[in-house]
What we know:
By secondary structure, this protein is mainly α. The protein has helices at about 1-15, 30, 35-55, 55-65, 70-75, 80-85, 90-100, 105-125, 130-160, 170-190, 195-220, 235-250, 250-260, 265-280, 285-335, 345-370, 375-395, 395-405, 405-425. Helix 10 (about 170-190) packs antiparallel against helix 16.
Amino acid sequence: MASRSTTDKAFQAIVIDDEGRVCADIPESACQQEPGNFFKHVGALALTKSADGLVDPKLVLSWLMTSLGAPVALIGLLVPVREAGALLPQLLTAGFLRKLPRRKWAWAVGSTVQGLAAAAIAIIATSLTGATAGWAIVLALAILALARSVCSVCYKDVLGKTIDKSRRGTATGLAGSIASVTVIVYALSLSFHLVDRMTLVIGGLFLAGGAWIASALLFATLKERPGATDGGKTALKEALANFTYLRADPQLRRFILTRGLLTATALAPPFMIAVGSRAGEGYDKLGFLVLASALAGLLSSFVWGRLSDGSSRKVLIFSALVAAIILATTSWLAFAGSLAGGYILPVLLFGLMIAYQGVRLGRSTHLVDMADEDTRAAYTALSNTVIGLLLLAGGVFSLVAHMFGGEVVLAVMAGMSGLAILAAWGLDEVQRG
């Protein structure tokens, strides 16, 4: 009883609530379990987000494959495989996962597989080189991404059943801030060469594997009530049913448009690094680039989460504005040849990652709160699948960069972020009512 009281007090302090708190959209039985579930969500997410930072395809894996002598073409597959592989399968898996009354178990299995895949990449790095290592890492990353897709479909549904809508952004934001501390320590080690860089990267991959497995064990202890299982269809029928939601719900279409335009925040970092490399700022500052990304998460995740609980729409608007300014500034400095020297690139990346964190937390909270228990899993799968297709099509930016330069790509992405402001402006305030 004392443990429950301590948990309740900590919960009250963090969510800035009172003893008479009311749960708006979860039943009383789930509301009573909410304090304990809140901290389990925070712990599991903090572990997985830490692992994500240690296995960052845009920075860490790109550096690793370069060091192993993998072809540039394979290095270019890392971000599309990681992002599209985590999103595209979701439309087809949503029907099967909906048949599970408690989806925490599917999430736990997916997290375990991600951990094993991360450990496999570390083993590959110690035993293979060249194209063989490159193909093996891409394959392991693809398996990791597929496992992540299962977790993504299940997570928002479990979150929606166990945490009330006024506190979901706080849980995910707090987890992001905690995870950033781990990544900051890692980045500082990379920056100041406290240990051989290759040893650190391989050790980080093993640590990430352990974090994913530990998160699976913790998530499995959530008190999740059985959910709706009706409506589970074959993959094709589920896909058709999900696209029916897209036709029927104009707010869902606008949300996906907004999120699609804001993929610029995910796709831009490699191009920022590319234009910086030509200016002499490349992977020599790997540690500082990772540090900039981690600091952005630490300083902004909790704030974005709290703001999202008030208005996820406004968070998306402001995040788009910040991204547009940062990307336009980077493009202008690259055209002017002013990126070389000092730490201009890490500072710009820091600004973009603040916007990226806002996009992630804003769109996650908005999607959970705009849907109900019956549509949440389908909306998540549909949104993620459409975005996965867009990310896959984002490979065209590589062609644009080859023909016209990374500066032009960044200018285009600044324009996408600007359009996202207009798209997000028309979203409903889903936290009201």
